[in-house]
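Quick note —
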Amino acid sequence: MNTNEILSHLGIQELNLMQEETLATSRKSKSIILLSPTGSGKTLAYLLPLANLIDTKKDDVQAVVIVPSRELAKQSAQVLQDMRCGVRVAAVYGGRPAMEEHRTINGIKPQVIIGTPGRLNDHLGKGNFSPENVTTLVIDEFDKCLELGFQDEMGLVISQLNNVERRFLLSATDCPEIPRFIEINEGTARLDFLDDTEQIPSRIDVCAVHSPVKDKLETLGRLLTDLGQESSIIFVSYRESVDRVAKFLRQQHFYVTDFHGGMEQDLRERALFRFSSGASNILVSTDLASRGLDIPEVNNIIHYHLPLDEQTYVHRNGRTARWNATGNSYLIIGPEEHLPEYISEEVKDFSIAAKEIVPTQPKWESIYIGRGKKEKLSKGDIAGFMMKIGGLQKEEVGRIEVREHCAYVSVLRSRLRELMIRIKGQKIKGMKTIVEPTK
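Predicted structure written out below.
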């Protein structure tokens, strides 16, 4: 496996120090505990050595990766696919029929399965894949798995993997105690890249925004006006607050995306694509979005509701300044609120320049296509359709994601109306399907 080729496929110039040391250590130690901050690139850090361990000539499942959320399962599987290293991977998680996943497993014969504990147990219990050839176990976001109460389910998964020789445990925070069922031995290497003196990366500027009234919506709107087209995640503490804040911002004509655990899976997928592709530059979310999402180039984190504890604060801020980028964190402080005592870094007072709320229109718009991988639709097919039939130039087609039964593509917003007229009723790769802007 050529690491430079993989990095080229991912659009990455070089590994960071943590990733280099993890790769080097994996050649000497069978098991690794990796502690590294949110946003530092832990997914790639374990996928590179994992890919080296897979025999691509065999059709057996050789590695199981346990993750705490469906979003992380999907994103990790996508990274492995984008590496183009010849390793077949399947993501399994709740919120969709297990039978559909079983058909996928039978069809592609994955060598790596990435999934949530409950769904992994479902497939193992039904014999949908054999545990006999699984020699590598990865537990990503290990601390989060324990926090969500997955211990029993993880223990059941691991108890069925009797031939595991290598283990990778990854976490953004140190775990005081690792359960015995993980079976970590004395030869396990421990790589600790957590900086005890730095609460969040120095690449993030932390600012306090003071709201003159208890209801912070007006202050939030003026802050977003100041930030313009920059991408921002607004964190609130409750699902109901997501609805309330998003409704207010839409009434002000901002381009907003909602995200919380009560949404159907397909709506969550659409929401994440709209935000990550730039079709909306504002994501309003509960703390569900503070872990397991790898959305590049998030400029700002806005704490509409103050974080309940230090860990929540750290993980929210970890959505910006990923890898070596810079970012901003804004804490909106009401008249009866104070900065939490656990915040250790310097917090600057931020004065909003905007006197009224004036929304900014994003550059891109996203489109849903009702066909996907099952119908042999590829990114190249979609790009070709948008350019040849839709009349777009290469630079007017943005991000493309192809999923099992659907796909998404972002296009220049100024060309959307003309595009939809051109492609109305047209077939894509000889297939009739729905092609419509996402909502």
